[in-house]
Amino acid sequence: MSKVKPITVPCPTCEKTVVWEEASTFRPFCSERCKLIDLGEWASEEKRIPGDELPLPTNQDDEF
């Protein structure tokens, strides 16, 4: 019988190999630290989904 090789993925933050299993609490990240670094990058808009900028809404009632 052959053993089933576990699925592994690279951590999106540090590229360390992470085994994709239920016991990997922070998957796809290798640790809570890498997870929080990634969250911070999204919150500070260092990471973003590409697309056209949306125009700012204008409210006619605010004009004097």
Task: Describe the protein's topology.
Layout: E1 8-10, E2 17-19, H1 32-43
Antiparallel strand pairs: 1-2
Q: How would you sum up this structure, described in words?
A:
The protein has a single domain (1-46), classed as Erythroid Transcription Factor GATA-1, Chain A (2-Layer Sandwich), CATH 3.30.50. The chain has one helix at residues 32-43, and strands at 8-10, 17-19. It is an alpha+beta fold. The mean pLDDT is 90.
Corresponding CATH superfamily:
Erythroid Transcription Factor GATA-1, subunit A
Tally of discrete structural domains: 1
What is the strand content?
5-15%
> Would you tell me which CATH topology applies?
Erythroid Transcription Factor GATA-1, Chain A
Give the structure's gist in a few sentences.
The chain is of the alpha+beta class and about 60 residues long. It has one helix spanning about 30-45; strands spanning about 10, 15-20. It starts with 7 loop residues before the first strand and ends in a 21-residue tail after the last helix.
Index terms:
19% helix, Erythroid Transcription Factor GATA-1, Chain A, alpha+beta, elongated, 64 residues
